[in-house]
Task: structure prediction
Amino acid sequence: MKANITIMPGDGVGPEITREAVKVLQAIETSFGHDFTLEEVLFGGIAIDESGSPYPEETQRSCKNSDAVLLGSVGGPKWSDPNMKVRPEKEGLLEMRAHLGVYANIRPIKTYPQLIENSPIKNRYLDNIDMVFVRELTGGIYFGKKEKTESSASDICEYSKTEIERITRVAANIAQDRRKKITSVDKANVMATSQLWRSTTTELIAEEYTDLELEHIFIDAAAMHLLSRPADFDVILTDNLFGDILTDEAAILTGSIGMLPSACLGENSFGVFEPIHGSAPDIANQGIANPCGAILSAAMLLQYSLNLKEEAQVIEQSVSGVIEDGILTKDLTESSYVSTEEVGTAVMEKILQT
Ligand code: NAD
Result:
């Protein structure tokens, strides 16, 4: 298969981990006889330094012309002054997601038996965790009208029925390939947007996805149950704000933020794929960042944007194999650890041996 993939390494550890994910994509290309054209472009703080914009026109063009985008991470202390005219996160990440119309954030959360000791949660709660968050990404309180005076401030939270329906369909389609259960998170006892969220999801699932089970849960209860019974969840559907909070909470179940991938999807198969972590400036340029989140994001890219499910599975199995072999970066082990590059090479070799 031929595909155009835009690569945006970004800032901090972004370039180090993205390099390993690219190595893995190239191993898949070789093993399965595909033809991927990879175009590397500027994005984030580095793009501000070089062009004045975190999402320059050339980068926008490359993204629009590609089948999928692989992103490292953006931001860092150099660009964190809130008074800066443009910032990597707001004018970079948020604008890019809106510009490319990717409104659904997909985050699988899975534990690896070998890494369970790294989790701050008691081991008995961590067996068989395998859930996927589907978070609405381009609406809600982050995108509503904002006002601030000396003495008061407000953020408007707004959702249309159409926005809720389209994200519910994404969750439903994912649930159909899994354990057929959706947990929808809201605060319908106090928020009007949550009431619309609850009635819309209920109606849509009842009409279009009769084989799925839908449960509703308040955000405060969800925060608790995520820690007390995490293995019960399959697909968790949330709005933008609640999803932002819960996905970070769920990430700590797995022991390291460095292991987790994500996808941002829109109407068609196009998507932006990135590890869930940030630019980790505290460990950048030391060769110790965990590249697995980036590598698994490349697997999601193959699965969701290119429909290469077998290839995606080969990457996932290779990452699991490398972890079983004890080839681990510093965040995953207290004893002897290996470099970012060594983990990437080990995954690549497993793929080439498959
Ligand atoms: P972070 O995710 O960068 O780091 C949090 C902690 O996790 C740090 O201790 C870091 O060392 C560790 N960590 C992160 N990735 C790791 C990896 N691959 N391997 C091992 N350890 C890893 O979050 P932060 O420190 O709050 O944010 C740093 C910068 O990243 C900020 O500028 C923030 O705005 C930005 N950010 C960007 C994105 C994105 O690009 N999508 C997401 C979140 C934060």
Residues 13, 17, 73-76, 80, 89, 93, 257-258, 274, 277-283, 289-290, 293, 331 surround nicotinamide-adenine-dinucleotide (CB under 6 Å). The radius of gyration is 20 Å. The mean pLDDT is 96. Residues 14-32 form the longest helix (19 residues).
